[in-house]
Amino acid sequence: MDAALLRRVETGAIEGRARNMRGRQVQLRRLFDYLCEHRDAFVEADQQDGDVSRGEAQTIVAAVLAEIRRHYDALDLQKELAQDNRLRTGQPAPDRQHPIAIAYVLPPLHDLLFGTVTALAAAIEAGSCCVIEIPNTTRAMGAVVRDAVLGALDPEAYTVIRTHAPAAFLAQCYVVDPEQRLDASVATVGRLVSHADEPTVAIVDRTADAAQAAKDIVCSRLVFAGRSPYAVDHVLVNEFVADEFAEAVRAKVEAFYGSNAAEGVVDSVVVHADRTNALLKQKITSKKLVIVRVTSLDDAIDLANGPTPRAALYAFAANEEARYLSQHIVARATFVNYIPSKLLVGPMYPVGYPIQTEMRYTRAMFERPSPQFVSTVGDRRTIATTNSTVDPAAASKLLLRAANPLKPMGLPPAGAWGFFDQGIILGASVYLLPIFVGSVVAVVQTIRLALNKYVL
């Protein structure tokens, strides 16, 4: 059955089935409407699979709908027509992009809804056909997402399969694989992957609002069953505010679980570790918060940096201290005095693209540059006009022009006072001028005394 589905999509890609502008709008609208109509089923499936509250499940579905809306709103018919018509009117299109023919999505199983639909929506906006691999599992969300794709979208361009596609098919696909489930040896057109094992770190400096920092950090760790890849893994808190921070953490954990249910929970959730603890090198995937005291910003920097970048740095500090931390800690993104709620839903951002809080996958990720250039009448840049490759004299002139000196590095014109000249003059005015003035005054006084003595 999977083979027949793949053949349909392969044919659709050859025919450019997914590239029509109005067709892309229709597909995104159908997907959006289906999720709205069946939103209760998605919420219930998320609760059943993910050990999340109803409110958290509703938040995930809302985040998915918001991303579909952004992709839909980004489609601009007039803009795309103008782009397509540039060559027809003799104008270059150096920024032209071309959609990838087939995207192959392996969504993270722990966040199946968001990981599938956000990648699918971005592929639809770009004009790519899409195959989604959802294996047979006991998870309720798998069946619900499969029904959504097969029930709402064009089967000639979008489908769901249960096992890995054959190698021959994957060789023509751009693979979206945030958890790197597909063997690296399998040939593909390209891969969109994430480094899911990179930990995050929060640093609470002595200049921070420790109580507010504790609220954000605890919430990030406890919501969505503690499985968000951008939840805080390790907390490095300055010893001057460590006690205040610990008390705020305890209060927030108790508030999260309720006063009765919190009996004994705090000590299980909060781990006060030393800097040799193995947990500091691990990605945390449960409701556990690892806290270590540090003595200074430099101490925190030394402890935070490792062999790989941090997935995110949450710097709770005054602006100058936050700037210093961000400069010296290698992280894929820095967030100062807050943890974005949208960041906590879904898989990690793909490597090679900047993190943004609005969308996990963008249209640009499913496109490749395909610029168009146009020669005008009398254009002297053409190979036939220049003849520089066959005419030694022309080539010699070309090399002579290319070897012209580079422009000055912003230095002042000749004769102007430079930086070091100004420094010398300033130093002389500060140190030598008082000595000179004092000497002149002394000479004048000496002459005056001599005149008074011998003349008067």
TrEMBL record:
Keywords: Membrane, Transmembrane, Transmembrane helix. InterPro entries: Ald_DH/histidinol_DH, Ald_DH_C, Ald_DH_N, Aldehyde_DH_dom. The keyword Transcription does not apply. The keyword Transmembrane helix applies. Residues 20-265 form the Aldehyde dehydrogenase domain. The chain crosses the membrane at residues 431-451. This is Aldehyde dehydrogenase domain-containing protein.
